[in-house]
Task: structure prediction
Amino acid sequence: MGCWAEKTGRSMPCSAPPPTLHRQPEGLPATSAVTSVRHVPSTHSPAKFKIPLLHAECPVAPDPNRGHVQRQGARGPSILPPLRRIQSPARLRALAPGPPTKELLVTAQQSLPGPFQHVVVAGCGWLGTAIARELVAQGHRVTGIRRNPERAAELALLGIAPLVLDLTHPQAHLALPADTTAIVACQSARSDTAEGYKSAYVLANQTLLRAAARVPLQALVYTGSTGVFGQRDGSEVNEFTEPSPASTTAEVLVEAELALRHAALAGIPTRIVRLSGLYGPGRWGTLQRIRAGTLALGPGDTAYMNYCHQADAVQVVLGALTRGKDGAIYHGSDAHPPQRCEVVRWLAAQLEVQPGESATGTAGPNRRISSAWTRQTLGLTLRYADFKSGFVAGLLPLKVV
Result:
């Protein structure tokens, strides 16, 4: 399969040499504060390079090379048609991915299995950095985006070219490398509010979709959340189940997904990976809660919990990136969702502490996330098929001596 530039008739060649400096776009006012951004080879010491923040105060000019009808908003024009056109349940069901026997509105196309020319990981936090490191190990050239300059500088030591950028800025799309061929959208919210979610998962993704209009993109994978499912009846939900948001933040997650699905219909090669409860090196919060007694037995402890180890999250995201289908939704979750009472009793026994008890219980969703279709479609074998195998590595340092 050719790159996205070839499929859309864009004049930008896929073999264009990678630029080492992003210059201020022509036509912007002289007062613009868009700064040049140098992508520094990983062999350089962090003290030897400058990673400026991107700040711009200028209008966004329409892109004459795109066939999408742009609409003007408070944050500049968007390549996305109004979301209300696809928010009906019937339309959402029609957009759901499925096996070849089901009708798809998006033509399924596999991306190239070989190394991408340039992968941008937008949001190099706990998970994004793990994804970027694996991409580097596989031979890809990787740029990692972080908001904090000091934290961004650390990426160079891992072989990742750092880029300091606020993806919610109206001009941020101009700062992405012009030779970007793949994007992993792995940003996280600064707060657990609807506004925080909107900023991280809707506005930031809009920036990445605008950037897709000016780069030879082959694939864009958005790491979403199984939080779009608010079922409380213990039912199984899979990649084809219609989202059922039960909170304002979950509604924002659904809105973010719809924007990516809509972009796929417009020809942008987007894929979505919904991840369940993430854990792994540096993130053993469940164990701490067991020891503290805040994750306890009591009312509602038969509700199901869903986990995904960091290592498996990485391989699902990379599977979707290299072998996924445009417009598809995949699940990153282990194969055996346990009930909360099982988690509490087993982990408490491993930690050699008494399981906590609560008279009030904990309200929340109760559903079993299935990832069977994802694993079969992408040809994946989970390293940690259940929570017991995944939490073993984090148990020893916390055991009572």
User: Anything to note?
Assistant: The two ends are 57 Å apart (CA to CA). The first strand starts at residue 21 and ends at 22. The first helix runs from residue 4 to 8. Residues 1-113 have pLDDT under 50 and may be disordered.
